[in-house]
Amino acid sequence: MLNMVFLTNSWLTSFNQPGLCITMAMLLHYFLLAAFTWMCLESVHFYLALVKVFNVYVPKYILKCCIAGWGIPAIVITLVLIINKDFYGNGSLSESHPYINFCWIQDNTVFYISVVAYFFLIFLMNTAMFITVLLQIHSVKTRTQKTSRFWKW
């Protein structure tokens, strides 16, 4: 959906309908945040599968992942819309924005908080999960090598 909204964004902007532009910018923002959120959920799943291998049962795991994956971005979008729906719009209406005929976030502060900071937090989470998984794999490998040396004597 992110690709579809991105590809149709500039075409739909050409109709010069403010409501349509706000909707397209909101959808683009939502699906971008959803993609980031699902990436984070994949790293949590990776952690559960490779580090917490045994005794990991989360009731209604898929439902909880879906609520987080689709719900957290919806909360962010709702907050932005509640604060000011005019944060979304057409870049060509403002001289300070270099992109033309593209509906997106118009306020730099909102962009940095709701996209860049969001991505940065997910990037940190993914990095932490990746390092934890690597350390776990390394410790298993080290234990296996010590055990195999013990049995060779």
From TrEMBL:
UniProt KW keywords: Membrane, Transmembrane, Transmembrane helix
UniProt domain G-protein coupled receptors family 2 profile: residue ranges: 1-153
Coiled coil: none
GO cellular component: plasma membrane
Top-rank taxon, per record: Eukaryota
Subcellular localization: Membrane
Ranges annotated as spanning the membrane: 20-41, 61-83, 111-135
Pfam families in UniProt: 7tm_2 (PF00002)
InterPro entries in UniProt: GPCR_2-like_7TM, GPCR_2_secretin-like
Membrane topology note: Multi-pass membrane protein
A biological-process GO annotation: cell surface receptor signaling pathway
GO molecular function ontology, one term from the record: G protein-coupled receptor activity
Protein name, as recorded: AGRG4 protein
Gene source species: Ptilorrhoa leucosticta
UniProt lineage: Eukaryota, Metazoa, Chordata, Craniata, Vertebrata
